[in-house]
From TrEMBL:
Domain Leucine-binding protein: 25-370
Keyword Signal: yes
One of the Pfam families matching this protein, by short name: Peripla_BP_6
Signal peptide limits: 1-21
KW Nucleotide-binding (keyword) present: no
Organism: Undibacterium hunanense
Protein name: ABC transporter substrate-binding protein
The entry's keywords: Signal
Length: 400
């Protein structure tokens, strides 16, 4: 009798496992510039962070007894390609949600595709504030566009807190590229300066691909600039750093988070030393969660460093939160996933940047708040903490 019971129990387990194996996987889209000049650091890191998540989640059996399958698409850092790939993920690949996008100019038109299809999108690298704002109430009654990245409505405040309040540098020049990212970033920076009742001594721009910004920098120096604040992609930021050195202008640089990317350091070399930027994550952070994530990233992606540690960590955290929303919704319907994201019952603790308690709400689709952002600095070719106290506070659990 005992043998028969054991046999039946074993058979039931096998049947259960077989039924689970026959359940189709839950398909989640991953999109970014895997190719595309000036943006591949971000694209590679979005993909790499997603692969770390995939290994972790499927190791514990996936979600709702179903494995997760990631469907990748390359937007090539081009708006029209981004829109086409967004439609393909929804219409052909039947994904339940999407994580990614690195370029504001690509995310802006592509977000409309997800909004109209009622498929949740969590942006994990593009920081243009307008991307999420365009779909928030009262503009629309219900938004499917979320973000887990430091919005450009936050970064200028963090930059100026460092430049003005801590370093006491008040003669500021602003340099930006002519992309939507650079334009919106400049506008947000000027708005923050206006809030402080100050104006820059110079505002200069340049085009993507420009190699020499000496003329713009010389005018800024002649206007009395003590420091230059950049809003541009990493490759052009490196050209600015090289131009500062070439013209011997002795102007310190601070910029948006893109200065934390590998390509900035590689292209600028020693000229990158001392440059600062707001970041949510540093690759050599001392916490156990951080070091474990970095070790997994390097092993799974077979690389020696993370091209954009910020984009990788933000993508991982976005996917973790999305997983919890799927569990809470107990469904793959876009409306139910969105509702779960806006009212999370679970705390996100298996994350890297922070532990999140209700990261989103109906009227707030930004998971990152100012207290999660700190200043990084290039030292000996690597991003480190500009201030030692930030290294200690980074170990503290941060919630909204």
């Amino acid at each position: 009798m005992l043998r028969k019971s054991s046999f039946m129990a074993g058979l039931l387990v096998l049947l259960s496992l077989s039924a689970q194996a026959q359940e189709p996987p839950i398909r989640i889209g991953i999109i970014g510039p895997f190719t595309g000049k000036s943006s591949t650091d971000m694209g590679e890191s979005i993909r790499g962070g997603a692969q770390v998540f995939l290994a972790d989640i499927n190791q514990i059996g996936g979600v709702m007894g179903r494995r997760i399958e990631l469907v990748e698409r390359d937007d090539q850092a081009k708006p029209d390609i981004g829109v086409a790939m967004a439609k393909e993920l929804i219409e052909k690949e039947k994904v339940v949600a999407v994580v990614g996008f690195a370029n504001t100019g690509v995310a802006l038109p592509s977000a409309k595709v997800f909004q109209e299809a009622k498929i949740p999108l969590i942006i994990s690298a593009a920081t243009g504030a307008a991307v999420t704002k365009q779909y928030m109430p009262p503009a629309v009654p219900s938004s499917f566009i979320f973000r887990l990245a430091a919005s450009d409505s936050l970064q200028p405040a963090v930059i100026l807190n460092d430049v003005i309040d801590k370093r006491k540098l008040t003669q500021v020049a602003v340099l930006h590229d002519d992309t939507p990212y650079g334009q919106f970033g400049k506008d947000n920076l000027l708005a923050e300066m206006q809030r402080r009742k100050m104006t820059p001594v110079a505002i200069e721009s340049f085009k993507i691909g420009d190699q020499d910004m000496t003329a713009q920098l010389t005018r800024a120096k002649q206007a009395g600039a003590q420091i230059v604040i950049l809003y541009c992609l990493s490759s052009e930021a490196a050209m600015v750093a090289n131009s500062v050195s070439k013209a011997r202008l002795n102007l310190p640089l601070v910029g948006s988070w893109t200065l934390s990317q590998r390509s900035f350091v590689e292209l600028a070399g020693n000229n990158a030393e001392g440059a600062r930027m707001p970041v949510t994550f540093i690759e050599n952070e001392a916490s156990n969660r951080s070091s474990s994530f970095v070790a997994s990233y390097l092993k799974i992606n077979n690389v020696k460093s993370i091209p954009s540690a910020v984009a990788a960590a933000q993508t991982y955290d976005a996917l973790r939160i999305l997983t919890l929303a799927l569990m809470q919704a107990n469904a793959t319907d876009g409306e139910k996933i969105k509702a779960a994201l806006e009212d999370m019952k679970y705390d996100a603790t298996s994350t890297v940047i922070s532990r999140y308690k209700k990261p989103f709400s109906k009227n707030d689709h930004e998971a990152i708040v100012q207290s999660m952002i700190f200043i990084g600095e290039i030292r000996k070719g690597h991003v480190g903490y500009a201030y030692r106290e930030d290294a200690n506070s980074s170990l503290i659990v941060r919630t909204k």
